[in-house]
Design brief:
mainly alpha, two-stranded antiparallel ribbon
Length: 114
């Protein structure tokens, strides 16, 4: 499975998301493994700096490329193993901060204005 840089959710934030670009035009066929040097197994920092929003670069550098040279794959960032568990999903949703729904004026306040 090849992970697309601009479409697939691979940036490890609370809710994984695609990378943000600093360019207006993006190559839709750019894959995460295109950003890794296959000889050194390190991120191509020059490519990251040329393409990716500076906010995302430290997040990307925090991802260790696989040493086995397997194809790209998704993992769950809320467990050490990268595998999803119901328990980790429960804790991940508890950590989300939900904004309370918008509550406008009540009906009685509107009736008082009529």
């Amino acid at each position: 499975m090849l992970i697309r840089v601009w479409e697939d959710p691979w940036i490890p934030t609370i809710l994984a998301r695609p990378a943000k670009s600093i360019l207006n035009l993006r190559d839709s066929l750019l894959y995460v493994n295109d950003l890794i040097d296959q000889n050194t197994n390190l991120w191509k920092l020059d490519r990251l700096q040329a393409l990716i929003d500076p906010v995302d670069i430290p997040l990307i550098l925090g991802i260790r490329p696989s040493r086995t040279y397997l194809s790209d794959d998704f993992s769950w960032s809320h467990t050490k193993s990268g595998n999803y568990t119901v328990k980790s999903g429960y804790w991940a949703t508890r950590d989300l901060s939900c904004d309370p729904p918008f509550q406008g004026p009540g009906v009685s306040a509107l009736q008082a204005q009529v």
